Amino acid sequence: MLQSKANTDLSESQRQELAVQKKRVVSIFRRQLACPLLDMEKTYQEFTEWLNEEPSRRDVVDMKIIESGFKKALLKLSKILPYEEQLVIMGVYGQK
Would you kindly state where each structural domain of the chain is located, as residue ranges? Predict the structure, then answer.
């Protein structure tokens, strides 16, 4: 992955490649944050830290879409969390 340097140090093709990589990373985070997963708050924190490392990263992000998906996933997780916890307990204590 290209490291983000000052834009003056990058050729046009490198800038384009960097933009594509940023969009790809945002897409991965968006999909993951829209799924009800345990510890998804940590993933959201990692995403916001990644965004804040470089201000230009916010240019490829629609935070309303990401936050909407994240809130829906959190709501769904809250409904299924008791079942998930039971599966974890059964996995630990149900093994022979």
Answer: 8-93
